[in-house]
Model the fold of this input.
Amino acid sequence: MKLYRAKDYYDMSRKAANIISAQVIMKPNCVLGLATGSTPVGIYKQLIEWYNKGDLDFSRVKTANLDEYKGLTKDNDQSYYYFMRENLFRHVNINEANTNIPDGTETDAIKEAARYEEAIKELGGIDLQLLGLGHNGHIGFNEPSNIFPKDTHIVDLQESTIEANKRFFDSIDQVPRQAYTMGIGTIMSAKKILLVVSGEDKAQILHDVIKGPVSPSVPASILQLHPDVIIVADEAALSKF
Ligand code: F6R
Done:
């Protein structure tokens, strides 16, 4: 694991955006694994800025998102499809046909999980997977458990995750209870992984992820076993080191 120390959220975003830009420049038809949530917003802003300056070209880039809430339509402003469109896709020259997100409206969970896993294989795998870190150590929606789930699957969200995500909804009752997510095996198959972490509220879990035992009770701890992981974290998130 390579650890890059950033001063603050803005610095973290720029450093991480630089790594993604390098990937796009070195391999213009690369496959980017993307994440939603608060942490990557600054990264996407930076990428849009560089695209507007003419420094980046997304025309041949393909993407696969980590996860999507089950039951939300694409036009629901809390769906991850909507998030990606608003925070990145509609601002750059990516071809929508090259973007992949689990279909939250598919009710047959087994069918959708298998379709998505296959779609990633057909892309030839992920070159660079961007990850945020949940307060409980989750990556994607792989919640603490006693196993590492391998492939894309449906999950019941934990109370702590529902609680953390309620800020985006009018009320806690509107937070979906299930989501599709890449599995830990899907994530670990990415050639390179970029984990971004910001804020003091993530300091303890980041410490456990890097220094603790590899255990499904802290899903992100599995990243210790990946051969090419870069962590970009700000000083607040690194305050327990
Ligand atoms: C988002 C995702 C989640 C988030 C995590 C951190 O696609 O898969 O694992 O990365 O919940 O979220 P934030 O960045 O909002 O703290």
Summary: The chain has a mean pLDDT of 97. The first helix runs from residue 9 to 26. Helices lie at 9-26, 41-52, 80-87, 109-122, 159-165, 184-188, 203-211.
